[in-house]
């Protein structure tokens, strides 16, 4: 299929353009080495990936705050590994993780090529649930901030995807019409359903090749966007 008569494209950032898992792994590797934390990195990451997703889901639903998210995801993983560690060290790792994560800048394969292809044809934007300072650092260090006319995050909007208000906020900020806009993201709940619920077309970046049932057009590699837009 192809989207026609579109003027504005809204991208999610983490897991869509910015390779979160790769950059996250490099951040933990650096922090563990810096503080001589004797944990097997791969074993840690095997637990961290699903645990982090679980706590982000709770954060999206406003069941926990930022501080709880940052502490509990690490506490739970260290308990699962298992590895005895003081609470003060967990808080230190949490702070350093947020500090150093944006300094790694790996993007998904094809991201720059696709942005170069889209930029002359469309107005490009970001809608992210991530923390404002962290997300701005990612965009800057990955040298992609100049592609985007507007950047909407959940702190600015006061709500998180899939809440319709963040999409409405982003559309208003971009001076865009939802009828001529498309949301591109990796989360069926936050990005796809959130966009659908306000009548915004959505394109699912299924990089992990999930088999969850859905009725959204999808791509498995960012380069496939060229066949759709």
TrEMBL record:
For this protein, the record's Gene3D superfamilies field holds:
HAD superfamily/HAD-like, Putative phosphatase, domain 2
Q: State the source organism's domain of life.
A: Bacteria
For this protein, the record's PANTHER family field holds: PTHR47478, PYRIMIDINE 5'-NUCLEOTIDASE YJJG
InterPro entries attached here?
HAD-like_sf (IPR036412), HAD-SF_hydro_IA (IPR006439), HAD-SF_hydro_IA_YjjG/PynA (IPR011951), HAD_sf (IPR023214), PGP-like_dom2 (IPR023198), Pyrimidine_5'-ntase_YjjG (IPR052550)
Q: Which Pfam families match?
A: Hydrolase (PF00702)
Protein name in UniProt? 2-haloalkanoic acid dehalogenase
């Amino acid at each position: 299929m192809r989207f026609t008569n579109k003027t504005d494209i809204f991208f999610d950032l983490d897991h869509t353009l910015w390779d979160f898992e790769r950059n996250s792994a490099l951040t933990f590797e650096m922090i563990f080495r810096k503080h001589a934390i004797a944990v097997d990195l791969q074993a840690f990451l095997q637990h961290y990936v699903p645990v982090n997703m679980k706590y982000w889901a709770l954060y999206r639903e406003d069941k926990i705050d930022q501080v709880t998210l940052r502490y509990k995801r690490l506490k739970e993983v260290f308990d699962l590994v298992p590895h005895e560690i003081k609470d003060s060290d967990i808080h230190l790792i949490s702070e350093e993780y947020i500090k150093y994560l944006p300094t790694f800048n790996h993007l998904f394969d094809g991201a720059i090529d696709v942005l170069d292809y889209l930029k002359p044809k469309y107005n490009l934007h970001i809608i992210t649930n991530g923390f404002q300072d962290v997300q701005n650092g990612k965009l800057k260090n990955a040298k992609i901030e100049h592609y985007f006319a507007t950047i909407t995050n959940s702190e600015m909007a006061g709500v998180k995807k899939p809440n319709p208000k963040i999409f409405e906020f982003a559309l208003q900020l971009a001076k865009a019409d939802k009828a001529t806009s498309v949301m591109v993201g990796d989360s069926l709940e936050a990005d796809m359903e959130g966009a659908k619920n306000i009548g915004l077309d959505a394109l699912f970046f299924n990089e992990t090749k999930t088999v969850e049932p859905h009725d959204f057009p999808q791509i498995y590699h960012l380069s496939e966007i060229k066949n759709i837009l």
